[in-house]
Write a structure and sequence with these properties.
Blueprint (H helix, E strand, L loop, with lengths): L11 H12 L2 E2 L11 H13 L11 H15 L5 H4 E4 L1 H13 L5 E6 L5 H7 L3 E6 L9 H7 L4 E7 L11 H13 L3 E5 L25 E6 H4 L8 E4 L2 H12 L7 H11 L3 H25 L2 E2 L7 E5 L9 H12 L1 E2 L1 E2 L12 E5 L4 H14 L1
Parallel strand pairs: 1-11, 3-4, 3-5, 5-6, 6-7
Antiparallel strand pairs: 2-8, 7-8, 9-10, 10-13, 12-13
Bound molecules: 4'-deoxy-4'-aminopyridoxal-5'-phosphate (PMP) and glutamine (GLN).
4'-deoxy-4'-aminopyridoxal-5'-phosphate binds next to helix 5 and helix 9.
Family: Belongs to the class-I pyridoxal-phosphate-dependent aminotransferase family.
Cofactor: pyridoxal 5'-phosphate
Protein name: Aspartate/methionine/tyrosine aminotransferase
């Protein structure tokens, strides 16, 4: 078997969700909302399914969604995107990441990544035959060490894979960090594969800046989005890649032999969703910001050290103030079994030498669930 997969554990999100179910725990582990996205978007999809438009759509995606993605790029970031040559629809951001790495990376290349890492990044980079060059950031400030980042780039660098806003750190890269990344990417004539699935989930008045908008980056960046996060429909797996034609073309070739297409009714419904007014997008971030605050207040009262959260679905907390030891996986196990609340150990996002006293809670849940979890934790500590 392929050594990339041999001996790999099951992804932590699946493991913790199964564990939560088995113990009747409130699942604040895996990142998904516990209420489905807008009913009008779901109805739109249902009508498409029932009307009988269920055969292979165009390989690059239905025109409605490709134009909607191009329009959203203009509307939110003032990017001029040609929907016909610069937008590809994929089955989720995960397929987009897989296609981008398969298409652009050759054996022997190096790919720069910032650790903590979303679960699929390392296996996908390794499967492409590349050597990962990891740059660490750690809680509570998740600050990038400029020298370490510069040192990770070299003559073999083919790409940087950047997740912004970042899971699980809930970090939003500031302008200076993005400028440094852009500068290094241009200097090494590399690509930037940007996982921006949380592009509409930023808090405290922050606005998302795609790396693609920085000088020199338009032609070398692949920008990935997902309807899962933007419309609270994580099970749909509708994603999209935006990139210059010369980059998107090989990615499209990888896509055509991976999934080829994505369900057309879901694509059309997402296209309709992307056209929603500013009030939709404001409410999405605003509601989640209120949930972040609700959970942060409660966890802090219980005695956890709450780490700042600038975006995403996730709040990381320090368990050290409660004297829970330095094995975060064991802490998550205990919390599930004894307290009835499931979180994810942050060490799962590091390859090695992870801090052992941080766990991640997902707050994209009904307030009653958040309050229920807080009650259980308060009783347990
Ligand atoms: N990237 C990040 C950072 C994520 O958190 C997730 C999970 N939602 C994905 C990619 C996967 O997105 P999708 O479900 O669209 O494949
Ligand atoms: N992105 C989600 C998380 O970080 C999980 C998605 C998945 O399970 N693949 O929890």
């Amino acid at each position: 078997t392929n050594p990339v997969y041999t001996g790999l554990p099951t992804t932590i999100f699946e493991v913790m969700s199964q564990h939560a179910k088995a113990h009747g725990a409130i699942n604040l582990g895996q990142g998904f909302p516990d209420v489905d996205g807008p009913e009008d978007i779901r109805r739109f999809a249902a009508e498409e399914l029932v009307a009988g438009r269920n055969q292979y759509p165009p390989m690059m995606g239905v025109p409605e969604l490709r134009t909607a993605v191009a329009e959203a790029n203009k509307r939110f970031y003032d990017l001029d995107i040609d929907w016909q040559t610069e937008v590809l629809v994929t089955s989720g951001a995960t397929e987009a990441l897989s296609d981008c790495l398969a298409a652009l990376i050759e054996p022997g290349d190096e790919v720069v990544l910032i650790e903590p890492l979303y679960d699929c990044y390392l296996p996908l980079v390794r499967r492409a035959g590349a050597t990962p060059k990891l740059v660490r950031v750690t809680p509570p400030d998740w600050k990038i060490d400029r020298e370490a980042l510069a040192a990770a780039f070299g003559p073999k660098t083919k790409a940087i894979l950047l997740n912004n806003p970042m899971n699980p750190a809930a970090k939003v890269f500031d302008r200076q960090e993005l400028e440094l990344i852009a500068e290094l990417t241009v200097a090494h004539d590399a690509y930037a594969i940007c996982d921006e699935v949380y592009e509409h989930i930023l808090f405290d008045g922050r606005k998302h800046t795609p790396l693609m908008t920085l000088p020199g980056m338009r032609e070398r960046t692949l920008r990935i989005g997902s309807a899962g996060k933007t419309f609270s429909l994580t099970g749909w797996k509708v994603g999209y890649v935006t990139a210059a034609p010369a980059l998107l073309d090989p990615v499209t070739k990888a896509h055509q032999f991976t999934t080829f297409t994505t369900p057309p009714g879901l694509q059309k419904a997402v296209a309709y969703g992307l056209g929603k007014g500013d009030d939709y997008y404001t409410a999405l971030a605003g509601d989640l910001e209120a949930k972040r605050d609700r959970l942060a207040r409660g966890l802090s009262k219980i005695g956890f050290g709450v780490v700042p959260c600038a975006g995403t679905y996730f709040l990381t907390v320090d368990t050290a103030p409660l004297g829970l030891g330095d094995d975060d996986a064991a802490v998550c196990e205990k919390l599930t079994v004894e307290a009835g609340v499931t979180a994810v150990p942050v060490s799962a996002f590091y390859q090695s030498d992870a801090p052992g006293n941080f766990i991640r809670f997902c707050f994209s849940k009904r307030d009653t669930m958040l309050d229920g979890a807080l009650d259980r934790l308060a009783r347990w500590v």
